[in-house]
Design goal:
It contains no helices and 9 strands. With 120 residues, the chain is mostly beta strands. It has a 5-stranded antiparallel sheet with strand order 1-2-3-8-7, with no helix packed on it. A 4-stranded antiparallel sheet has the order 6-5-4-9, with no helix packed on it. It holds the Pfam family V-set.
């Protein structure tokens, strides 16, 4: 399914994050916003990420936001240019990209942040 990222965890119903699958061409120096919407899980309970996949198949965490929006982090390459935000009342995650550079070319995904601990 293009444009849909499924997060599946054993023993729980599948959670879903929907975003547009249509490719967008953005000229360097311009701005663009991308968004995704969560469903089938309590969106406001989870930290969220924007992750990008480059043309060589590498994944890079671009930005992270705490469930209540109180803490935010960015990859060094996008600091000061990208802004992550969330709207918990509508289960929405946004990424505002300004001063876009050729090296920002990638496929962008929103992802639910999940910490997996090994209780040894």
């Amino acid at each position: 399914m293009d444009g849909t990222l499924f997060c599946v965890f054993p023993g729980v119903q599948s959670q879903q994050l929907d975003q547009s699958s249509d490719p967008v061409v953005i000229k360097p120096g311009t701005s663009h916003q991308i968004s995704c919407q969560g469903s089938r899980f309590t969106f406001s309970n989870f930290h969220m990420n924007w992750v990008r996949e480059t043309s060589d198949g590498r994944f890079q965490s671009v930005s992270w936001i705490r469930n209540d929006g109180g803490d935010i982090a960015y990859h060094d390459s996008v600091k000061g240019r990208f802004t992550i935000s969330r709207d918990n009342s509508n289960n929405m995650l946004h990424l505002e990209m300004t001063d876009v550079k050729p090296e920002d070319t990638a496929r962008y995904y929103c992802a639910r942040y999940t910490l997996i601990q090994d209780n040894v």
